[in-house]
Amino acid sequence: MTNTWLPAVLALIDQANSLDPNTEVDETGAAVPKELIYGRRMSEMLARFAPEADAVAQAAVRAQHIQRWTVPRSQYPMDKVGYHQWRTGLYRVHADLAAGLARQAGADEASVERIAAAVGKRNLKGNADTQLLEDVASLVFIEHYMLPFAGQKPDYSEEKWVDIIAKTWRKMSDRAHRFALEGGIRLPEPLLPLIGKALNPQ
Fold first, then answer.
1. DSSP-based three-state secondary structure for 142
2. Residue 197 DSSP one-character state
3. pLDDT tens, 171-195?
């Protein structure tokens, strides 16, 4: 069921993400603010993967990376601990922004709290909203971003790549696994051998 506040909150999220100074070339060849195109890809994947998703899920998925550029990685130590601190900080920022925009759009407090919990990555595996968002994010990463990311990390070993793919896979539900393997997404062909090794370790 689509709630009356959903179009308003999606527009507000897009408006916030349109301020991203970083751009990415989309499928039409146009340069688009990076997080704006990411949010739209998340929504497009949700429509393919879980067309039954309710308004809360649709809002949370669109807000996954809301204004991500405002919390640069460089603000934290450039080590593993710093990376996790950065990610945790991002979850809080995204959740607070998404909740504020949902309230502005007229969402009820129960919906606002569900959106904040999902975007804040609370209780993965235990919260259906959080798991759905993680599934969609993982599917979007595999289809749109895994291959470009590989191009940015030529120094990564095969072992490291197998580990990255395996960690992504472990975050996903069985439903998302089936969707990915049964043609629901476009797998990055150059990385198929690594994906095979990650999913079928010897």
1. helix
2. H
3. 999 999 999 999 999 988 888 888 8
Cα angle 25, 142, 76 (rounded to 5 degrees) comes to 80
Helix runs in the chain, H state only: 6-17, 34-49, 55-62, 80-104, 109-119, 128-140, 146-152, 158-171, 174-181, 192-199
- Tell me how many domains the chain contains: 1
The answer as to whether 72 is a domain residue is yes
Q: What angle do CA 36, 119, 60 make, to 5 degrees?
A: 60
Q: For residue 44, how many C-alpha atoms fall within 13 Å in the half-sphere facing its CB?
A: 12
C-alpha 16/C-alpha 71 separation (Å) is 14
Please write down the HEC assignment for all residues of 10-41.
Answer: HHHHHHHHCCCCCEEECCCCCEEEHHHHHHHH
Segment 20-30 shows an average pLDDT of 92
CATH number at residue 78: 1.10.3210
Show Cβ contacts of residue 197 under 8 Å, excluding neighbours closer than 6 positions. 158, 162
**CA proximity to 138, closest of 61, 59, 40, 51:** 61
For residue 172, the 8-state DSSP code is S
The pTM (predicted TM-score) of the whole model is: 0.91
